[in-house]
Amino acid sequence: MDEEVRRRLAYEAQRRQQRGESQRSISRVLGIHRNTVRKLLEELAARRDGDFRTAGQEHRGPRGEGNPPPPRRWRPLLYRKALRLAVTAGQREPPWEIR
Asked: Which of 8, 26, 48, 61 is the most exposed place for a label (fewest CB within 10 A)?
């Protein structure tokens, strides 16, 4: 969507909301989806409140946040294989320390 068109739609949506119209009626009159009206109004509110990070595109946090990666599985498999080889060779323990 062109910036000028988006700006005009945002202004019109804000003006109609201040008059007390619902987001559904605003979307019908302007010919856009309800979620677009909601996003336009949220961006205007964020810009008005001074939160420029949320005005415009959504902010993504730095990488590494969220769930940690699953534990690596190769160590238990390697240990089992080494133990199996040690037992077949006649030893009770593998010849090296596995952490």
From this structure: 61
Phi, psi values for residue 46, rounded to 5°: -65, -40
Three-class secondary structure of residue 73 per DSSP: coil
Under 8 Å between Cβ of 10 and 43? yes
pTM exceeds 0.70: no
Percentages of the chain per state (helix, strand, coil), in multiples of 5: 55, 0, 45
Residue positions counted in the chain: 99
What's the rounded Cα separation, in Å, for the pair 51 and 31? Answer: 28
The distance of Cα 29 from the centroid of its chain, to the nearest Å, equals: 32
